[in-house]
Amino acid sequence: MLTAQLADAKQAGQVLAMTPLAERNALLESMEHLLVTYQDQVLAANARDVDEAQARDLDPPRIARLKLTPEKLAGLRESLAALRQAPDPLGAGRRWQTARGLILQETRVPLGVIAIIYESRPGVTVEATGLAIKSGNAILLRGGREAHNSNEALASLWHQALKDVGWPSALVTLLHDPDRSLAQELMHLKGLDLLIPRGGAGLIQRVVSEATVPVIETGVGNCHLYVDEAADWEMALNILQDGKISSPAVCNALETVLIHRAVKDGWVPQAHERLSPYGVVWHGDAEVMALVPDAVEATEADWQEEYLGLHLAARVVDSLDDALDHIARYGSHHSEAIVTNSYSAGQRFLAQVDAAVVYWNASTRFSDGFQFGYGGEMGISTQKLHARGPMGPEALTTVKTIAYGSGHTRDM
Amino acid sequence: MLTAQLADAKQAGQVLAMTPLAERNALLESMEHLLVTYQDQVLAANARDVDEAQARDLDPPRIARLKLTPEKLAGLRESLAALRQAPDPLGAGRRWQTARGLILQETRVPLGVIAIIYESRPGVTVEATGLAIKSGNAILLRGGREAHNSNEALASLWHQALKDVGWPSALVTLLHDPDRSLAQELMHLKGLDLLIPRGGAGLIQRVVSEATVPVIETGVGNCHLYVDEAADWEMALNILQDGKISSPAVCNALETVLIHRAVKDGWVPQAHERLSPYGVVWHGDAEVMALVPDAVEATEADWQEEYLGLHLAARVVDSLDDALDHIARYGSHHSEAIVTNSYSAGQRFLAQVDAAVVYWNASTRFSDGFQFGYGGEMGISTQKLHARGPMGPEALTTVKTIAYGSGHTRDM
């Protein structure tokens, strides 16, 4: 059933792949204007979704994610503006001549057609499509049922913007999928170049394990902060607070702090005091329990857990090696941080920790496509192949090698 | 059962990941010397495999792939020498400062542990391991049963070379797998960073569809040559001959030629004459049949077929657009070529054909890691994610982003 939509999208994508950056950026800018002009219509459509969701007793966090506000729309416009200012992910790369004189030119090209399966956030309809357009791809959007009216309103603005510049509407296809059959179909849609699940761990795992089309896994961040014996205590407190408090529900938030035994007696009580106004629950080993009066005892599950909330696992370690072992065992290869003024400890941590991003004296919360200057992100890849870490527009491209010959043959 | 081997390989890989290029190259050079010193032992082990294979009545092409000769061993030494001369795939990449002043440093690092499942060619034991070492990875080798003695002999040379430089032997692990249970286990070995199937289409498809670990698909090459109306006829004949004759059993060989109607009457008979000494069987459409006396009629299956032998599918097209449509429909996204002196036709072909490598006035047979100057290849990726086209040492690496802060926090 989606075969026809995919074919239309492929064809439309070929048009987009040829356009210069300025035209792709003009489309993004046009969308920014439409988001202002039609703000009331978008908010009205969203209000219908929110009303229905409340009538169906959806849980409050999900309704919070569903709800659009003038501020959230302004944020989406800022994302599009940042994306416009980001460099072109398409175009010429390395060029070289082979031993036989053939000229090879690497060229970044769009993947073709990407699809995204997402949940209640309607903002994804703007952000993911912006990234697709910037990188020359057509996109199939399969949003959550509960956001259907909001997504329709936003997709219709994209279609208006496409019409304004004279590009095919098949570049952006919103799929209405009340019975989830289309999500199923997307996972097995031969010819689809990439499928990205964006949402909770359940959705991501279902897609990764079932899909037969190419998928990039995003998401789980069990991020650690290691406070070394040579740490600046105040810096470690700030980085702990930023990592745990500033946005606890996101994947780059801190979940576990590892403290060198040499500093535990002084630093742990200060850390506890720093976090206590926010109601953080400490899950500590025996030594942490002795220093944090209201800590609960950490179990094996705590070391593995991505709390996504105001909980913190805490453990005392004997050495940098112990910290490295703990992270190797429990980390999710997302973002890991050390605070230390020791050159050798810092360098060893950077070299030995196997993660997408490793931080020396900085907060894991910087693992983000905007912070990295990519102009946005499709998510944060925790896999090693293709894209690792924040996925900006370049993660939605591939390489084509162009060979310029003058009758070159290999074995004649 | 492989969990312990994987853990040992991971640990050994961490040692290798830290070594400078000169030491990795020294190991490759040591292996080159050992291949000379122990040539007789390797050939003797191989002779036992060949004897057993003959006793078991294996088919002759498989025995040919199994058999080592002094010339083949010299070729393997040359591969290692080429790999030594190739640039370091590891090390520093882009470095930039974010808007907030955080310094980000992209670094190419090894994937960790890669595994390869291969069939009768014992040379893979040298080539694949060389690529793994060059790129800082540990490797698990699961070769074919029939090559077991040869693989043992070659792996023991690697272990000797590792011992000489003082590196752990767990960097190279040869798996003996007479009942194929280990191949099965590799496909689901949690923590394995990459599995590459190398061999026939059956093996590759089985691994791609069944594996739950990261896999890169290599292989199928249904490569086309389009002879444009503005082609240089002699050049097109040379490129046809090179593509079809020089090594018909490989994936970058030509399978189909598309001829513009304006040149068919003159060019097709010349092409037929050029290929006739080699016994090429033409599978033509009606117009080709009229020009090639001994052609057989092409069926739909011929357009899809990767012959890997002395067969050639041939079709007359009305235009460049028709040729592009044919390639879009039947191509395997591997390597495609146009011969033309028309600037506009050449540029359109390069831009619109969706393949790993597109050739303008050159043979598809250049799609090869040695020809590209990579110092070797793990195969030719026909997927768009991670690696596309010939996979040299860099395809066995990933990126880690290192963040240097001085107490940077995001939201405080």
Automatic annotation (TrEMBL), chains A, B:
It comes from the Bacteria. Keywords: Amino-acid biosynthesis, Cytoplasm, NADP, Oxidoreductase, Proline biosynthesis. It catalyses: L-glutamate 5-semialdehyde + phosphate + NADP(+) = L-glutamyl 5-phosphate + NADPH + H(+). It is found in: Cytoplasm. The keyword Amino-acid biosynthesis applies. Residues 6-276 form the Aldehyde dehydrogenase domain. One of its GO terms (molecular function) is glutamate-5-semialdehyde dehydrogenase activity. Catalyzes the NADPH-dependent reduction of L-glutamate 5-phosphate into L-glutamate 5-semialdehyde and phosphate. The product spontaneously undergoes cyclization to form 1-pyrroline-5-carboxylate. Belongs to the gamma-glutamyl phosphate reductase family. This is Gamma-glutamyl phosphate reductase. It comes from Sulfobacillus harzensis. The gene is proA.
